[in-house]
Amino acid sequence: MTTVLIPHHAQTFQRPPTAGRPGPGAGRGATMENLEKQLICPVCLEMFSKPVVILPCQHNLCRKCANDVFQSSNSLWQSRSSSSSSFSSSSMVSSGARFRCPSCRHEVLLDRHGVYGLQRNLLVENILDIYRQQEACRPVPMKPEQQQQQQQLLCEEHEEEKINIYCLSCETPTCSMCKVFGKHKDCDVAPLSSVYLRQKTDLSDSIAMLVANNDHIQALLSELEDMCCRVEENSQHQREHLDERFEGLVALLDERKQDLVGLISKHQDDKLKHLRSLIGRHSEQLEAAVALLETAIQSMEEPHMSLFIQSAKVILEKMAVTAGASHMERPEIGFESLSHFVLDTDDLAELLRNIDFSPGVGDDGEEDPEGGEE
């Protein structure tokens, strides 16, 4: 009879749990149960439903539950929300709305976005996903005889041999007989328990790395959201600053316009004053000449020669004086023209059309790092 030598590690097997000792899944079940308690919403008393929001006091709520708490504590807001659409009324509120955390009664101040402005806790959401994946893979509780059968999986080729080693070459669990006689005799193997512990450790480390990476992503998202807020604030500040600068230019142009209009008005008044003085002077001369003409015509009708000669002599003397004094003073040619008041704004208009921001210089006179890199 041929003697078969079986390696020592092939003779070991896992002892089924007794009535007084918990099985290997008992600790894991307790851990998952404790984790589940930490993922319960304090409002609905159910597991968190995404999206999960984190309050300033670091407590977490389902966003739907946070909205319910907010509406129940603001009756006026609740009456408004019932008369409008659910999203628009619950997402946009007046700045200053508030409610209290149901866990610690800390007062939560909301912005104009309402509960939709609260920061999402992506870390808790990722833990929820991992928990649900673990629960989906969690074995269904079995009867003791089913557990014993599950723990004592047998080899398909050697029905009475338990699967207790792992073929590293083929990457599959197998039994000791397959290593000694079967298709895995030339392969590298390792105890199934060591491979199990190693892969479980690797998976646990990967989960920890994923959670840490998600934490970093959440921090980055928070930083990006803060940057968005700062961009909006800086844009508003620059718009106000731009309005002030243009209002100053408009005021300067209006002031200069008034100065130039005043200069034109002064020249207009001077010319009109001179022209009206000439009109008054020549009007007086004309009236005197008309009166003298009427006197001369009347003297022509004098029938007595002696009286005519006396009056004619006086009239002739007055006519000579009037003719000598009636110098026709006229303004110079083009006196009425104001064509020298011409304003050339072409260069200024071109300058205004090309007005632009100064690259690399902020409103405080310091160089802008973004503009300086161009």
Automatic annotation (TrEMBL):
It catalyses: S-ubiquitinyl-[E2 ubiquitin-conjugating enzyme]-L-cysteine + [acceptor protein]-L-lysine = [E2 ubiquitin-conjugating enzyme]-L-cysteine + N(6)-ubiquitinyl-[acceptor protein]-L-lysine. CDD domains: Bbox2_MuRF3_C-II. One of its GO terms (biological process) is regulation of microtubule cytoskeleton organization. It is found in: Cytoplasm; Nucleus. It holds the Pfam family zf-RING_UBOX. Residues 1-29 are annotated as: Disordered. It comes from the Eukaryota. Residues 41-105 form the RING-type domain. Keywords: Coiled coil, Cytoplasm, Differentiation, Metal-binding, Microtubule, Muscle protein, Nucleus, Transferase, Zinc, Zinc-finger. The keyword Ligase does not apply. PROSITE patterns: COS (PS51262), ZF_BBOX (PS50119), ZF_RING_1 (PS00518), ZF_RING_2 (PS50089). Its EC number is 2.3.2.27. One of its GO terms (cellular component) is cytoplasm. Gene3D superfamilies: 1.20.5.170, Classic Zinc Finger, Zinc/RING finger domain, C3HC4 (zinc finger). SUPFAM superfamilies: B-box zinc-binding domain, RING/U-box. PANTHER family: E3 UBIQUITIN-PROTEIN LIGASE TRIM36-RELATED, TRIPARTITE MOTIF CONTAINING 55. This is Tripartite motif-containing protein 54. It comes from Eleginops maclovinus.
